[in-house]
Amino acid sequence: MSDKTGEATQQLTAGCLQFNIAMGDVEGNLQKVRDGLQALARQGGRLAVLPEMWSCGFDYRNLATLAAHTPQVVETVAALSARHDMVVIGSLPELDGDALYNTSYLVDRGVVRGRYRKLHLFSPMREDRYLQAGSKTLVADTSVGRIGLAICYDLRFPELFRRLTLDGADVICLSAQWPKPRRDHWCVLTRARAIENQVFVLAANCCGVQGKLDFFGSSMILSPRGEVLAEAKDQPCEVLATLDKQAQRDYRAAIPAWHDRRPDVYGVLT
Ligand SMILES: NC(=O)CCC(=O)C(=O)O
Fold first, then answer.
1. What is the pLDDT of residues 190-234, one digit of tens each?
2. What is the domain extent for residue 152?
3. Which of 56, 152, 173, 206 is catalytic?
4. Which of 16, 56, 94, 118 does the annotation list as catalytic?
5. Interface pTM (ipTM) of the complex?
6. 125 CB under 6 A from ligand 1?
7. Which domain CATH number covers 195?
8. Is 6 part of any domain?
């Protein structure tokens, strides 16, 4: 599919942490992540995906103050990722000057390898009123392979996922806060993005109630064929699966949709 495989691990144990995000409670949410990463590490996890805005939720009124904690939160996650020999990905509020972003941090064994600022802000949850949109995509080489990042509503934009795959991602990690009643969209779209790009998709959602929103969980791990390798129910938990990179290469060779694309006719993506 791409010569930029960034191949590091043939068999990768990877997981999503799903929990109920307590609005504004940075320390409480961080403790859930400490416990969850430890549980994943005990089961051999080398890659962990956390939900969207996991440190505090969309606490818009206090977001600038809460975002001021983010550098310290990232430092703590970096220390945990080093201790557990893991790549950890999840979105947090980021303050840059006066601007706030919904930013996914990719931390690899103690080092921040990249940041991705959400491109598509979800106006039904008023995200566009309080946050700025990013303007760049991110695919990074890590100790577990080449990873592309996306955040929640981004899932509805196949062009982004195609771009990440064109840039060599073999795993795409999505942090989300995706509420009821749109579980069917979540299930179909995570699967579609995996199948159409022949990539692994790890999609971490939150669960529980925050204000008027009720989150159904269903964090997912999908194979490049679209098989559901693991799926959470609606309670706090971690889900894990083994990602077989050789099987991914074999499948891409068997169904060569990538080579058969016709961007000369219909696409500007090259
Ligand atoms: N936080 C989000 O981006 C929510 C996206 C969502 O719920 C959707 O249906 O799309």
1. 999 999 999 999 999 999 999 899 999 999 999 999 999 999 999
2. 11-256
3. 152
4. 118
5. 0.99
6. yes
7. 3.60.110.10
8. no
